[in-house]
Design a protein that fits this description.
Layout (H helix, E strand, L loop, with lengths): L1 H6 L3 E5 L6 H14 L7 E5 L5 H7 L6 E4 L16 H6 L4 E4 L2 H5 L5 H13 L3 E6 L3 H5 L3 H12 L11 E5 L13 H18 L2 H6 L2 E3 L8 H5 L6 E4 L6 H8 L5
Parallel strand pairs: 1-2, 1-8, 2-3, 3-4, 4-5, 5-6, 6-7
Helix pairs in contact: 2-3, 2-12, 6-8, 8-9
Length: 258
């Protein structure tokens, strides 16, 4: 099992969504940095709101924590009211961006094609990209989950080369499990992660699929992180609510390898 973990380094990501003022973000980030100070065999990522990026960057200075934007535009500048460019993210201290989060898809209507543009723009600027995919409850109950996921992956990765895949992470987020308290069982999550990895081995060479990290997101908690991380194709987690509490997220970061 240790060989597996050395091959795909676990990534524990916290998405703060629309929470925290700059002061709150600074306090939370400092506490997270203290909680993961002893861990050297896994990566930790924080995605605060855009307004708190600079404050968090200062709070985690000297740590190995990766700072991420919650979204990113595909253009460096221009008439894109409300958008944030890759260069702006990097200027604020970020090295990564989340793209295609289910809330962007479901609430704000972002299409697979638009998300692909965001992926391309972030990769052009050498950002680490976390591309999120996931099905709704209706789609799962209709037996369409894998079809939906395949479309999201194929379109989301259009034009992305095997070389660029070294700077990309996928996150599987069943929409029906985000913020609902419902979590996919470890068997459901593993089955879906294995499907995604199999699809990637068709789109790219097998070694690309084998090396790509696939995160699970959807009501991840201290009580279920160990069993999720024990699954062979789950390489980390994308955490929402539990990432807003330093003690809870600290326990998630410090998951116990079974």
């Amino acid at each position: 099992m240790m060989g597996f973990y050395m091959q795909r380094r676990p990534l524990m990501a916290g998405n703060w969504k629309m929470h925290t003022t700059r002061g709150e973000a600074r306090t939370l980030a400092s506490a997270v940095a203290a909680a993961c100070a002893k861990e050297s065999d896994r990566d930790v990522l924080l995605a605060p709101p855009f307004t708190a990026l600079s404050a968090v960057s200062q709070a985690i200075a000297g740590s190995a924590i990766i700072l991420s934007g919650q979204n990113v535009c595909w253009q460096e500048q221009g008439a894109f009211t409300g958008e944030i460019s890759p260069g702006m993210l990097k200027d604020a201290g970020a090295r990564a961006a989340i793209v295609g989060h289910s809330e962007r898809r479901q609430i704000f209507g972002e299409s697979d094609a638009l998300i692909n543009q965001r992926v391309a723009g972030a990769l052009r600027s050498d950002l680490l990209v976390i591309l999120c995919v996931g099905e709704t409850l209706d789609e799962r109950e209709a037996g369409k989950a894998f079809n939906v996921l395949e479309n999201q992956v194929r379109i989301g990765l259009t034009g992305v080369t095997a070389e660029n895949m070294t700077r990309l992470v996928l996150a599987y987020e069943p929409v029906w499990a985000i913020g609902t308290g419902r979590t996919a069982t470890k068997e459901q999550a593993q089955e879906t992660h294995a499907f995604i990895r199999g699809l990637l081995s068709q789109l790219y060479e097998k070694n690309v699929a084998d090396q790509l990290r696939i995160l699970y997101g959807g009501s991840v908690k201290p009580t279920n992180v160990d069993e999720l991380m024990a699954q062979p194709d789950i390489d980390g987690v994308l955490v929402g609510g539990a990432a807003l509490d330093a003690a809870s997220f600290g326990r998630i970061i410090n998951f116990e390898q079974e």
